[in-house]
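Box 3.1 A note on notation
Throughout this textbook, protein chains are presented in two layers. The first layer is the amino acid sequence; the second is a token string describing backbone geometry. Keep the layers aligned when reading.
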Amino acid sequence: MTTKRTPRPRDPIQLGKLMVDIATGAVPDAVDDGKDTAAAAVGRKGAAARTASTTSERRREIAQAAAKKRWDAAAKER
């Protein structure tokens, strides 16, 4: 399981109090967020996995469609 740190306040006085509370054990520094680390690592593939699974022809089609949208939007602004 992964752990999540408690949020740090912006106010320096409150931050100092939180640091003392953590040091004395009054407040836990990190809590278990209930997420499985292996499952979280699998979910971080993102664009790299999508690029690897897409053919160059399909990527070209996507890029051309995006460029057409950008140019159409620019033409409408004039």
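Residues 47-78 form one domain. The radius of gyration is 24 Å.
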